Amino acid sequence: MAYGDGFLMSSYYRAPLGLTHLALAQAVEAAGACDIDGYEETLGAVAGAVLESAARFAGDVLSPLNRLGDRSPSRLEASGVTTPPGFARAYRMLRDDGWVSLAAPAGCGGQGLPMVLASAVTEMWAGANLSLAMCPELALGALEVLRAHAGPELIERYAAPIASGEWTAAMDLTESGAGSDLSSIRTRAERQDDAWRLYGRKMFISWGEHDLTENIVHFVLARTDGAPEGLKGLSLFLVPKNIAARGRFEPNDIRALSVEHKMGIRASPTCLMALGERDGARGWLIGGVNDGLACMFTMMNHMRLGVGLHSLGLGERALQLARQYARERIQGHDAAGAPCAIIAHADVRRMLLTMKALVHAARCLAYNAAATFDVASQSPDATVRAKAAKRLDLLTPLVKAWCSDVAVEVASLGVQVHGGAGYLEESEVSQVYRDARIGPIFEGTNYIQAQDLLSRKVLRDGGVALGELLKEIEQAARALAVANIKPLAPLRAQLLEGAQRLRAAVASLDTRAGESDLIGAAAYHFLHGLGVLAGGWQWALAGAKAATQPPGAQAGAIMATAAFYAAHVLPRVPMHCSIIEGGTDVLVRALPEDI
Fold it and tell me: In this structure, which long-range contacts are made by residues 190-197, counting pairs with CB atoms below 8 Å and at least 24 apart in sequence?
């Protein structure tokens, strides 16, 4: 595809296609997705062309608009929300070239390609231009909600336009005073004829209003008359911006009151939405009355994986910027006294290797989750699907939270590599850092993810799912010894020790189960201990594969980075475990007045 017409060519973001292909193959094998009929053939025949075309689109169309969008954010005008120059045209190209429908189900008019392949493309979009990448991201989650919970009329009317990207979707949860605590939602829904009328206000709605498409389909949590208080009284409604009637669109009673002025992702319009200022916003119930939270989580889990992939893209962008700067910036002298680029300095290499090691670990883990999603939804074996679903439950909060925290760490290191130049607005790495900071907040803060992971996904089932993952990590570690890959002996040792320490840390929580706030005090450290360990697992798989390849630059770099991960990143696991076992007491006993 040629994307030069009317767009500046970018000298910046370029998709890491070599590592992407390796990570995809690794994820498919590790998740067992190759057993799905036609899966390997589809990836083999299609993946190369899709990824190369996506890489060109990301680098030549989306990336040049990234800085422009940051400097000229979306704004609210009398006619509605206006997006930055070039965004509407880029979105039309995104839609018309079929990128929105890539992994959408064929029954909805999508292309039905594997989620793992779509995930690699999602990483590219985010690395090139996160603000614009966020707009079509909700389509898959919206389709899953419709397919799982909506009636045939809603599916027939809304699924195909969402799948194609003709219409976009928005998720309307948060209200003033009801952020992460959805039990406080007060938006109300009243039954009227064949529909409902909704009244209330929703805040922090990403892409809640814009000029890219003629319709926006809102998925709104609200309370019906007489509904119970708390989470059990929530219902989910489909509320379109415009309603098709008599062959034309009629505006619904929903509009943006303001667009937030944000630290980052400034081109993405984050809206305060008003529903029912006149006669009520017409909406249609999805699922049953008071089943809203269960329905919404179908969409939410898609979005949580999306946050991890978006964060991964930003981490890769920060790495590219820092590496390029470090190779070009002359400062200081080498051992012979000659002027040198800063990449020759040991601490700069430490920062760059840390960035590279964390980003690729996050990439492999996120792709593994996507491949596991494919198994859970497509395997012909019900037992295999059930097992994959449990693994996906474990990986989803890990991908969302650990990968987004990794992105913030990596972007911060990228600023540091740039030195004073990185702190200037003229430096794109400062934008990457600002954009990345939303990841740990989006779609349930990382503290919520950590609590969910430890309490619901680990302790509730007696640690069975965790135990299976730890055994798989240990198998990958022992395979390094069987293959006699001596440079990775420290990686093997650290993985085996880390798995054992994490088991012991979880066991220590069982002995203290009655302590107030114990889970809350330990959750962060458990998530990060498991995240770092799972990242090491991915490097063990990558290192084992690289050791079988002919000597070359890529195989050598993978082996070197895997060894670096073992020496500089995996030692974080025993630190987190030590805090779980002995450092939570101080936090549990601390009083607000002590702070």
Answer: 190/224, 190/225, 190/280, 191/224, 191/225, 192/280, 195/282, 195/283, 195/284, 196/224, 196/237, 196/282, 196/283, 196/284, 196/285, 197/276, 197/279, 197/280, 197/281, 197/282, 197/283
Q: State the sign of the Cα–Cα–Cα–Cα dihedral 19, 22, 25, 28.
A: negative
CATH number assigned to the domain with residue range 165-291, chosen from the 4 options 3.30.300.350, 2.30.29.30, 2.40.110.20, 1.10.730.10: 2.40.110.20
CATH class of 295-594: mainly alpha
- The CATH number of the structural domain formed by 17-162 is 1.10.540.10
Count the neighbouring beta carbons within 10 Å of the beta carbon of residue 417. Answer: 26
Supply φ then ψ for residue 37, to 5 degrees. -55, 125
Residue 440 has pLDDT above 90, yes or no: yes
For residue 7, what is the DSSP state? S
The Cα 41–Cα 179 span in angstroms is: 44
β-pair partners for 271: 205, 259
Q: Where are the beta strands (DSSP E) in 80-146?
A: 80-82
Asked if 410 and 358 touch (Cβ cutoff 8 Å), the reply is: yes
Q: How high is the pLDDT of residue 241?
A: 97
| The Cα angle at residue 162 between residues 158 and 164, in degrees rounded to 5 | 125
Contact 537, 460 (CB under 8 A): no
Q: Using only the alpha carbons of the chain, give its radius of gyration.
A: 24
Q: Are strands 248-251 and 254-259 parallel, antiparallel or unpaired?
A: unpaired
The answer to pTM > 0.90 is yes
The catalytically annotated residue of 123, 144, 443, 474 is: 443
Q: Which residues pair with 206 in a beta bridge?
A: 270
Other CB atoms within 10 Å distance of the CB of residue 45: 11
Distance CA 59, CA 170 (A): 26
Angle, vertex CA 6, rays to CA 5 and CA 9, nearest 5:
80
Q: Is the confidence at residue 70, as pLDDT, over 90?
A: yes
* Cα 223 to Cα 290: distance, rounded to the nearest angstrom: 8
CB-based contacts of 420-423 (< 8 A; 24+ apart in sequence): 421/325
pLDDT digits (tens, 9 = 90+) for 114-169: 999 999 999 999 999 999 999 999 999 999 999 999 999 999 999 999 999 999 99
Could you tell me the sign of the dihedral formed by the alpha carbons of 507, 510, 512, 518, in that order? Answer: positive
Domain ranges (residues) in the chain: 17-162, 165-291, 295-594
Query: Residue 443 catalytic?
Result: yes
Residue with tokens 């916003």: 281
